Amino acid sequence: MLQIKNLHATIDGNQIINGLNLEVKPGEIHAIMGPNGSGKSSLASVLAGREEFEVTDGTVTYKGMDLLDMDPEIRAREGVFLAFQYPVEIPGVSNISFLKTALDEIREHRKQEPLSARDFLNRTREMQKLVQFDSALTNRSLNEGFSGGEKKRNEIFQMAMLDPSLAILDETDSGLDIDALRIVADGVNKLHTPEKAFIIITHYQRLLEYIVPDFVHVLSGGKIVRSGDKSLALELEEKGYDWLREEIATS
Amino acid sequence: MLAQIDVDFRTQIINDYQGVSECKICDKPEYLARIREVAFNFFQKNGFPTQKNEEWKYTPVKPYINEPFDIDKDKSQTFDPSQANYFGQHLPGYKIVLINGKLSVEHSQIPDAALCTIQPVMDVLRKPEVQERLTKSRNYRNNPFLAMNTALFTRGVFIHIPKNTQVDKPIHLIHYEVGEGKQFNISKNIIISESGSEAEIIESYYHDYNDAVSFRNSSTEILVEPNAVLDHIKLQKSDHNLRMVEHTEVEQKEDSLYNNYTFTLPGMRFVRNNLNIELDGSNIESHMYGLYLTNEDQLVDNHTLVNHKEPNCESNQLYKGILTDKSRAVFNGKVYVHSIAQKTNAFQQNNNILFSDNATIYTKPQLEIFADDVKCSHGSTIGQLDDEALFYLRARGLSKTDAQSLLVNAFAFDVTEKLRDEEIKAMLNEEIDQVMSGVIS
Ligand SMILES: Nc1ncnc2c1ncn2[C@@H]1O[C@H](COP(=O)(O)OP(=O)(O)O)[C@@H](O)[C@H]1O
Ligand SMILES: [Mg+2]
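# adenosine-5'-diphosphate complex -> structure
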């Protein structure tokens, strides 16, 4: 589904992604861990198409297409979804009507009929329940005045509504209490099908108790320095990132 | 100082003044001759404002007045307002037709006299309440157009809403500025909302794009008595050949509410709005909302002055602008809080989005506070659309243009949101959407 080869990217002239390779197949869940500033959000931004990042080398292929050649909205319509680490507040833009527009665009791109008002409403209700997102919030301005946890849950609610094939969750777990964490994880597990892939960026292995990854990667200095199965996450939890740094330095 | 303008126009102004002051058949109460003389002497000496005048620093008027204008000449007897479309036409209300400032009873739907009376201002000059409005001392130094207006007006309407009356429909003034030649139209309007009354006044504008330039110099004196509520909505959208200065003076008494909404849309080449509010009583509320969408070489200037003279009042200003092309806009807001005006709430905000490198905004919010127990704030912003927000929307599948118009509309709807009249709100939101989709696509 996704092949990242030798990816290099800069922002404002600073090299942030530094020769990164990753392959994600349909149905897989990949966890990406790594210390602060290692480039996790930058990778997510490059995949979602943030224009401030300049790709200086390497390729990204998504469903056989050149992902880097697509505008952000085309990536979204092709099924790439990014749950932002820091979702923006947009006063005056209604959460629900924006989501309806987004869904219409995505369905049109996929040559599907637009959902009727009734079907849209039903879907909204169903997904709200799935991720336990307060229905009062869906009618408010996008993220305006939402708590940190509400914003994160809104990201998952939007993900559920838009039905992506590749979802990238950027530290969706940070700032969530254990109940909220469980709800988010339940949501992901329910949405997970053999066709869908997830890249879950996280700082802690806590989330991975609820969402079991097929692979765990450690990002450091803008590239993947170690990959393994879920036991790598436990090992990291135990020994910290310094252990890896030392190991890389000596290797 | 009138040397700054066209010779013929200058001669005309002087002749016109002689006309109004020497007219044998006109009704000329003694006070009127007096105020006209003061105003004319000032105007003759000082002329139109130059950019040396602090209140006109960013608003050069010379390009807009340096024409061989005719003052209030009626070449428009043949004009049929029923055939002329204007912005706001479909809104329900009592349509009051003013042709070059002159009330056309024939074409108007004058409400029942029990609800409100509407008359030409020249017919009511001897009413004490009219005299009281017209003899208020006014700052000509800051407002030279007002001096000209008072010296020369022969047109305008008097609107009187009696005590405890609720006018059932909006009173919709339609200003038709028409004429074959270059026309300079001067009108003086007076609105009195008696105590406990409630009314909504809408203003629309018409100028035929085939016609020569018209300059509208209008002044409106408003009194809002105790417990009265007045909504005042200006829908400033018309043709490129219309230019105008609208000077509005509002005096509010205790427990009254005055809401001013000024929408200026692409069209008129030059618009200057002066809105001065005196809060002359306690428990007064005044809201002033402005939205200007400017394009091409438009110049739109909003000057406000709010005077808190008594305790426990609230004034609130929110002006927003979206500028495109090489248009210019000015916002200058002043709030004075006198030392006895304790417990004043005064807010003033001006936010702008620039859609072009050639567009210019001058913004100057000012507060002068002499009382200590007050809540006041002011601020202004100038910016582009938020890139983070744009990316967020696009990352959800919205096209760049859809995302931009969603953000622009949200910015502008923040002002229309404040309208209590749902029909006008819907009309404006649609108009804004249309204007901005032209800019964005
Ligand atoms: N706009 C930017 N300009 C310059 N440097 C940036 C910018 N955004 C992020 N960085 C830098 O890129 C590096 C990686 O950041 P980020 O991807 O946010 O890390 P992570 O998500 O792993 O904490 C950091 O050193 C950060 O300071
Ligand atoms: Mg991050």
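# post-check
The first strand of chain A starts at residue 2 and ends at 11.
The helical segments of chain A are 40-48, 72-77, 95-109, 117-130, 135-138, 148-162, 178-191, 230-250.
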